[in-house]
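WARN no homologs supplied; continuing
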Amino acid sequence: MNKRRWLLHIFERAHEPSPQAEARLDRAILESIPDGRVSRSLLSALDAPSHLQEQRLVANLTAIPEAAPRRSGLVLGMPASRVALFGSAALGLTLALGHALWDQPEPLATTLEVQEQPADLAPFPGVHLAYNSGYGELGGTTRSPSIQWIAGKLEVEVEPDRGIQLAVLTEEATVRVIGTRFTVEREDAQTVVGVERGKVEVTCSDGERVQLTAGQRHQCASLSPSKLALRALRLRERGADPAEVLAVVERGLERAQQGDAAWSRLSVLSMQAAVDLDQRDRALAQALSYLDAGHARLRDEVLRLAIDLSEQPCSLALAHQDRLQGELATPADLVTLSDCLQASDPDQARSVLERALGAPGLAVQERAAVQGRLSLLQ
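OK structure emitted
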């Protein structure tokens, strides 16, 4: 039974509408958003059935043959303003009395869309999901639902003794549960699972398996060097503890291939974390080793860092002046090189400053500073 016919079936059993009313509902469903996100709103708009109609509904639902294919037609991800979880008498009655619709495991396939406001959605009796600014995919069956959670925070409650075996999967972890309340939060290539009630089993992508009970939390990190580099970068941007950033970086470097893009970015992040930890000598040694090895990726960024950390910046600048005045040179690179060239080659120092002065996008204050240096060399 497809979604449209299922809605008509529920309407008919609860209200026994006239052919005209049934036709109106049919048209409304056909005119709804293609993915059916208003189906639940349509049901919630129905008048509450009378006591006799409730009895009729129960009788009709229990009379449905067990082998008949049935689908719920309820789609997750509608805007919170259109969700009426238990506010609709018709929908509440359907969920409360319509267990016969769920006796047979039915395939599930729907998108959990980003919400502007928290939305508590119940795709079937016994499971409640709440999420805000997160998204994923719901699949599996009504007995064994599976949520592929992509980003954001997901709150899950599974009522015990329902026989429902739910799994939440992220890139870093798999969470399995029978009856509990827990959260899954995925951000920056890391999954954090927290249990409020009951017990869950968490299996991380590296094979680590733990069981969590109420009040416990566990985190699973990505095994991908590029994802770990992204996580370290985001942590640093948010002002996280440099030691935490460095720990993520070192996990990535253990798995990265030397010289590739992820390894290069992780190497730079390692140098920056060392600076943040006031380990400047360590950072400088890493930068010089990177330059001496001839790695091409992020070479300019590493050179700038090394010059900034060195007690003899001009020796480095002059040794790498081709890089400092290459196509990717910034006005700051050119000013640094010019300062180092003044004593040995003032003409070239002026030429380099003139190029810096003509750089597009130079701020007013920066332009004034470059012009001042150039005037002193005239």
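Strands lie at 110-112, 119-124, 127-140, 145-158, 166-169, 173-177, 180-186, 190-204, 209-213, 217-221.
OK
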